[in-house]
Every structure is written in structure tokens, then in C-alpha cells.
Amino acid sequence: MNILYAITLLLSSMFTMQGSAAGYTVTWVNPTENTDGTPLTDHKDSLLWCLKAFQADGRSPTTYGNPTIHLPSVTRFVKDWAGPGQWKCKMRARNERLVESADSTEVFFTLLDPDGDGNAHTAVNITLVVPGIPNVTVECPVPAPVECPVPAPVECPVLTPVPAPVECRSNALSVTRKGFYTISGPDGVWLTKPDGTTRRLTTQDEAYEWITKDGRTGAFFINPPPYEVRFE
Length: 232
Hints:
CATH architecture of the largest domain: Sandwich
Distance between the termini: 124 Å
Largest sheet: 5 strands, mixed
Helix content: under 10%
CATH topology of the largest domain: Immunoglobulin-like
CATH superfamily of the largest domain: Immunoglobulins
């Protein structure tokens, strides 16, 4: 398969043209397979680089710049009025995912200027064989398994037994109210007095009724009357 990566330099058509400028023609063979031998079905374009091999000093090599881009249906490029000197060309193929092949073998050729007028009068034809494109497979990462948290064990509270109420018994028990319900309004002023001089409220319901009749909004405070409990 090395022949797919070789470049055939065809100089059979090289000839000298006195009195007219000439250049070079590049033809190439596009790949039909990927590097793994599978058919190349997504060939997007081919990239061609051609430029003089050395700087003006004749010793410093040049580096390739931007290529000319050619659709898969194009396999020929003609450069007229190329300057004399040594030239070099190479190619790559590219697929729809913009994956590029390796470089073809770099070809060097010389355009001659027999009459010394500064123009090349040699026409050169070269043929390049473009390598196949790597069939890169994009693998999606496998998500890590999701581990559900284990719930913490539920601890049941220890129930403390409630002791039975103690019944206190007496031969005689007397409970005597020693005053009346008292109410203080939102402004802190007493609406009723413990001695009952303003109003004698003997039950909590009477206190609620008295607050309702007051008509104001805010916090009212109800204080129960004192009681005297006697055991005899």
C-alpha cells in the first residue's frame, strides 16, 4: 500500500519554451478508502500547497502557508507565470468532520529560465497520490452509575410511662373567689379593676363579651381573679 503515499514525478512533459512564460500543472489521485480500509464516503475536499522551496537567498527553506482547496470532483490545478527556481508541493484530504489525512510525499521540481529574463520557460507536470483519511470514531463517555443514598435508620423514641395522677382527698375542701376578672386594653389601661368597682366580671365569657363591646383592635389581656383554697 506504500504506492498510495508515493508521489510520481512526471517530467516527461517538461520542455523549454523560448520567448513565452510557463509554470506547472499538478494532477492528483484522491483517496477512495480510509486508513483502516473502509470506504471513504464523506470526502469533503483536498488541500494543495505549492510554493518556492527556498527564500530569495537560495538557502533558507520556506514554510507552507494557506492551501488551495479543491472539491473531490477536481483533480487538476494549473499555475501559469510561475517564477523560476525550485518549487515544492504536497497535498492532504479532509472529510466532513474536518479530519485530515497525512501529508502526501513532498515533491520538489525546478522551473528553468534559459534566457535569463526572470521568467520560467519550463512547463512541468507532477502527479500526487493523496493518502487515506483516518477513520476516527467518536466515543461518547459512559455516564457513571448513579448511587442512590441509603436512608438513615429511623430511631424510635423511648416512651417514658406517664404516672397515674395522684388523687388528693380531704375531708373538706373549699374554694372561694376573692375578686373578679380584670381586663387591660391595648394602651395598657385597665378596663376593669380587681375589686369590681368598674364592672364585676365573674366568668371568662363575660370578659370576652366586654372586650367585644370595647370596639378597639389590638391585644387585650385577661387576668383571672385570685381564689382561696382551704382544706379542713
